[in-house]
Design a protein that fits this description.
elongated; alpha/beta; 312 residues; 5-stranded mixed β-sheet; 7-stranded mixed β-sheet; Metallo-beta-lactamase, Chain A
Amino acid sequence: MNRSFPPSLAALALVFAANPAFAVEAPKPKAPEMPPFEVAQPYPNTWYGRFGPTNCSWIDMGDGVLVIDTGATAADAKNLKAEIARTTKNKPIKWIAMTHLHSDSNDGFTTFLPTDATIFVNARATGAIAGSIAQGKAKAPHVIGISDHIALVAGKQVFEIGVPAGNAHTAFDLYVFDASTRTVFAGDLVTTDRCPMLSDPDCDIKGWLAILERFDALGARGLVPTRGNPTGNAAPEIEKTRRYLTSMLAFLVEKKKQNAPEARVSGELVAEQLADYCPRELSALNALSVYRRLLSDGTTRPGSAAARPAAK
């Protein structure tokens, strides 16, 4: 069944409440401020909601629940757990996937402990996750570090859980792809109608562009980002992100070849807008964050992810 994601969580919740057989996208209203408890159900076994600043998702897999991201705070995670229990009739949480380790997306993780769930993270994040797990508990999660991609199969449901080959938005990115609905849970790799953030000290534009190609290859139709509104038309959002990153990289490589000072780089970007949805000042900050580690061939010097518990 092919169902569209409307442009806001509020619109989707209202449409589904009025007509469970929804098949027509609702008119696009002005996006309101979203309350933390709001939840929408785009497919019979799938929910997402905004908990604090973060979109978290969960899927009823039959005998248990897959959770994607855990919220920014303990309070967000507590609310998320309550909604999971309510919507799935108290089915156990058997899997947790973390799209990256920024605090505003996954500082709620410890609220899910103790647990015997399986935790999926980017392989380079296993040390950080191990440090977050309390010792001596009756239940201990099984942590699986993903270095390429794996298939999670439960009944007739098949999910691809994968990671970039190297750094992208961060050093620890991960995505979840639902093959049945062709929906990608993308973390911050695509943020709908919001400027991509390049300020993480391990951000690598080339790696980021490569994982967007993977989303294309998967034929992603639905998109649930960590930031922004979910959509049933992923391609334009992926393309907007690609255009911005490609333009930024070309600009910065040219300035690096000129050995341009940072003041010139930021000054020119404040005067020139690379994308309509990216404020000039934010683009300037993004540029400087990458420029300081950029080499003339467009690659970036390795960050210090291995030495940090998590990127903030």
